[in-house]
Amino acid sequence: MTIEPNYSRWKAGLQRHGDDALAAIPPLEIATDTIHVFPLGPGGDAPTLDVLARSFGGNTRSHFLVVFSAALGATARTQGSPPYFSGDQLAATSGLPLLAISDPTLAMDNEIRLAWYVGNHATGPLFGRIADVIDALALQTGKTPILVGGSGGGYAALSTAHYLRGAADVVVSNPQTCISRYMKEAGHQFLKTGFGVRRPQGIPEPKDAESLQALLDDICPEFDTRVPDAALLRRNKRVFYLQNISDHAHVKNHARPYFDNESFPDRSGKCFVTEDGRMIFFPGEWGQGHAKTPMGLLAGILEGIVKGESASHLAKERLEKSEWAAAKPFLTLLGQSLDRRNAFIQAEKASESRMAVALSIPYPKRTLEYAFYLRGPDGVLHQVPYQKSAKASFELVDVRFPALLTVFAKDNLGVIKTVRRRIDAL
Fold first, then answer.
1. Assigned CATH class of 8-319
2. Which has the higher per-residue pLDDT, 201 or 336?
3. Mean pLDDT of all residues in the chain?
4. If you compute the radius of gyration of the chain from its CA atoms, what whole number of angstroms results?
């Protein structure tokens, strides 16, 4: 089943491109508002990538918006057919031209509401193809793209930016960064709709994130079901990652893992910037839970980008001083890399003269540093200062038992978690 598109409701012209248009994208009609329809395969019944170019004609601004939609609400399904575009209000507020992208998987049936722009069995992987359209329009207009998305649209913006050849800014809010760590029902529906033909015997319902990831890896291994590592993304990009701090599920399951390998040298404020200025992380407050990002917050960031403001200026002047900044410096947001419930200390005799200790955790974090304190009944403290290794050793001749061993695990924001064990003897 494929839902018949209704292009007329967007009040724009229509340009249908040939089967090979995405292989060599021609100049796009942008003097007037136009929906561009790119076939994603041969034949008249092939799925299409639909993009809406709006307000480019006569616009002299240096940037243009590229907006990816979040999950469809119930009204979007009942009140209109695909394509589904977003961003008109943000474009009007910012005065920037708009390139809105519709996710073709949402046109496959009425059940699916979120597909992260990943693609499906009929389209193939999509992020590279979307990036080609953006790069072509940037080259045609001489403007720099700003990719914008919230929630599932944020996932798409981060992933697409990885494929862009040209420079870009990326503004995401409460994004998912791994499909399997989102609601398993949404991931299951994505697999059933997008890849059901690959498993005609049916796709079992996943029990948890691990089983969902196993299904994704098995059924669609060539598709991007995780956002690429942040370090790879930043080459000629700048990312503004906005996270509502009361959206606990996205803090724990998406923001924290995404920043595992990042280091923020200045931890004193309410907005964090990497040393190279390419990653700006803003943990703010705007409503409860997975709340929609305020238009004023997005518009302020866009204004700063267009004006050419530095990352540090944007962070300090536009974000930390905004009404959406957290009430207190929020250093603990990413400080849960170590889960004490799954961490334990091993201690054994390494030799006749040395004692070996190690902190064991299921998923070691490369950004954690560890310090070891061992105190015996005589009160004497033996220390191993912070280091990258989760292993240490002590001279047995210096240690009296029973002893208390404390391991300090410090994350990239300077937040410290401790694990303790009483050692009676070896």
1. alpha beta
2. 201
3. 90
4. 25
